[in-house]
Structures are given as C-alpha cells and as structure tokens.
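dumping the sequnces here before i forget
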Amino acid sequence: MLLVGTALLGAYFFLAAFSQAPLNPEKVRYSGTVEEILSPYLSQDWQLFAPDPLADDRGILAQAFCADGETTAFYDVTTPYIRRTQNDRFFPSRMSRLVSTGLQSLQNTDPVLNRLRRWETEQKKPVLPPLPYEERSRDDTVRLLSRYALTQMPGVCEGRPQKIQVRVYVHELRPWSGRDDPAAKAKEPVHVEDLGWRKVSDLR
Amino acid sequence: MKRLWASLDRLSVAPAAVTGVCGTRALLGFTGFMFYAGQYSDRRYLFGPDGVYPWRDFVQGLHDNETFSLLSLSASGLWFEIVFHMGLLAALAVMLGLGGRAVLVLHWALLWSVFQRQPLILDGGDNLAYLVLPMLLLTRCYDRFAVSFGLVRRWAPRVPGTLRAVTPALHNLGVAAIAAQICLVYVVSGLCKVQGRVWQDGTALFYVLRIPEFEWPGVSRLVYENDLLVVAGTYAATLFMVYFPLGVLVPRLRSWAAVGSIGLHVSIALLMGLTGFALTMVACDLVFLSRGLDNAVRAARRAGDRVRRAAERQLPWLSRPVGSITAGDAADRVTGGPDIERTGSTSVSEQAGRSPARTV
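..and the predicted 3d for all of it:
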C-alpha cells in the first residue's frame, strides 16, 4: 500500500516539477501532455514575483461617450481600491486585483511565442502578429476591464453612457540607481495606451 | 536493505506529525473562512450571477477547462447566496474541526466553485490551498485542535479492520505529500528568482515594495529606503527558498527551517498585505513543526494549570466540583489527544471525583 502510494505521489511530483521547469526542449515537446494530465485540479504556478517582478505602478482610467454626443474626462477607476487595500492589512479585499491581474493577462502569452517575438525584434525581422487565440484572449480581457470600468462610474452621462473606453497607464517608478536623486522622481515617465471603445449594450 | 524495510514498517504503523497536520487543517480552515469574510461586502460583484465577470464567459471557461463550479448550477441570486454562505460555514467547520473529512471535501468543492467564478483575484496561496486540501483527506488531521462530540469513538469500531490497519500508512503518505508540495513551491520559486536580474542584483525588494498594491504606506518606505535591508532581505529570501528542502531534510534544522519560513511569511503578510497567501504557506509549514506544537500545547496546559491553582488559592470557592468541568477535560477539548477518546463521555462529577485538585 505504502509503495503504491509512494509511486503515485512520485509520479505526481515529477509531473508537477516538470510543469514548473524553465523552457527547455523537452518541455516544448511534452508540456501539452503534462498540462492535460495536471489541468485543472493539479495545475500550479510557483513563480511568485520571479524572475522579473513588477516594478511599476499600473492601472486604468476610463471615459464614457454619452447619448448627447459628449465625451467625458477620464476617471480614475483604479486608485480607490488600491487605497482600500493599503488601509486594510489583514485579509484585505481583493477588488484591486481585478485591474492588476487583468492588465497582466493583457500581456500574457505563450512563453515560446514570447521568445520567438523577442528574437525577431532583436534581429530586426518582421514580428509574428498575434495568433487568433491570443486576439480572443485579449478581447475578453478588454471587455472585462471595460465592464469593470462601467460599474465604477455609475453616475456618468446621468447613468446612460453609450460607450466606454479604457486607458491603460504604466507609471515607471525610478530605478534603484536613481533612488537618492530627487530629480529622478520628477522624470518618472508615464506611458498610456487607449483600448478600443466598447458599446455599453455589449458589456451589460 | 534491512533498514529500508524497517523504516517502511515504521511508516506503516506509526503516524507522524499528527499535531502539525491538525494545525495545517485548522489554519487552512481559518484562511478559507477569511477569504469569504474578506470579500463578503463585494461578494455579489465578484462572484454573483450579475457580477463583473460575465456569466457567459464563466460558463464557457468551465467548459474549456473541463471542470465544475456549484455556482454554475443556477444563475439565481438565491442559489449564489446559498453556495457562498455554505462555503463560509464549511470553512469555519474545517477550522473548528467539525464534521470530519466529509466537510473537508465540501469545503474544497465550495472553495473551488468560488475560485472558478472569479479566477482574476486568486494568488499562490489559493493555488496551494486547493492542492493541499485533498492531501489532508489522507491524514489524521482531526485528532487535535478539533471540537469533538465523541462520534469518532462511537463509530470507530464500525470501520473495517483493513482500513484501520492502513490508516497510519495513508496518513504518512498525506503528510509526505504536503511536505513535498511545500518544498516544490519553495524550490521552484527560489530558482525562478535566481534567474531574475533584480533578484541577482539584490534590489528586488526595492521594486516590489513600491508597487502601490503591495505598499504599506509609511512602513514599506522604511524598508525600501534602507539599502542594507533591501539587499539582505532580497538575498535572504532567495537563499532561504532554494535551500529550504535541505533544511527540512536534516532533522536538527527542520524546526529552524519551518520557523524561518513562518518569519518570512509573517513579513510578507504585514509588509505586502498578502495575508491569505502567507497564512496558507505557514499552515503547510506546520507539518514540520509537529513536535514544537506538541511542546507548545503542553506548555500552555501547564501554564493554565499554574494559573488555575493560583486562582484556587485566592478564591477557594472556584474548586467546588459541582456543575463544573475538569481542567483535563477542558484542555483535551482544545488539544484533542488520546484522553478525549478514552474519557470523552465520562461524567463531569466522576472526573471531578477522580481528580478534585484539577477542577476549576
């Protein structure tokens, strides 16, 4: 009994460890099979802030297009929940993760494709365009972020907005080398990307 | 070879780390309960049928992943409330040790259902919880820190002899699985960190602690503005994770490795606000601290006895046995232990009569 159990346990941990290994030729070949066995009940991810942790302040703003043809200013729909998390140290609400994880999944893609595109960029070759499943996944995330933004602006356009647009911002915090340089704080760049307008009727 | 068979024999008959694994169960129950409690005011928005994650995408996701969620059985608000509150109560029952393995299975199924409804808010702690809860089913995780109504003692004779005979072996397998799982978490995380540039540079804490979502205003700054703390903390965390399995393999270092891990995760809980993740890791570390937990329980019991005796000297009426319970009984209700099975139904006055000096 103990031997059989140990063998099963060994097989599980072998597959689990394999699924967590860095990209290598064997992983490229067998990762699909291993994922099929582990997913969904035994799937796992233990990178935990590694290898490259987030190093910037990211969030979203949102604006609405009203029935009278006016476009509102951008509203900050990220900071209120960040403040709430900061003020509650013991099991804080996870509302802020809707935005942070949503933004991460906008950029997540297959590690092999990631490496290929990086190589193409370095070699100054045409970069592989997003594959259909990547486009679908991005579209789902944009829809989710837009729906979230819509719910965070209940009074906008007197409660009857026609369309919503999300703006992603990435505020680069000064690097370690500039930690003692007051001028570096003033020079922290902010990058923005406007996602496509979404009809409110499609979001509800 | 003889030694190997002797070890296998021992593992087949003597359950290891019982107190530790009971602590794991209780703490995972608490963490689960706090997951529900922490999201309580936002529950409809996060998990409800009209929540932020569209119902259509939720159902499609279940289909794509070939999995289930009890929430998908009905799109009614009432059903959602029933499932959510059942999850809350099941987690509480697991924490208190009520209902045994059946409730542990129910807790896992409800937690999984809620996780599937809103995958965006999950973290490594949730991932570890849904892996470790089924492993706990193999173990004797209800022997300690559990409220007992004597049902186990009453039903124990009905359990088939074969199953009773393999119980220690299954328990030890479960404990080994939890231990191996936590080692895998540490090694993978540690080795991934070793490959990262800012972890190599010793500056990762500087970057992570400034992210607004993980920042503790007024406190994080004290750490990330101190160069020595940043470098020492970054390297210590990485080295600790990589070498954790070696630490627990050496019996003399085992407790220290577990205490170090608990220290690391308490820091993460406080500094980064990742309480659920940190406590789930601590819960799994407890399998390495079984002896320490036993000692702590004994010390607490002795301290309680001393306090009680002192109180009795000052207030003699406290020692009257009528309508009271014995000190030993009270302690066993908290710690579990073999006594609870032997004397659980003994009347209060009988126990008081047998040991009047220990009455409260």
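Chain B has three domains: 15-158, 189-288, 303-358.
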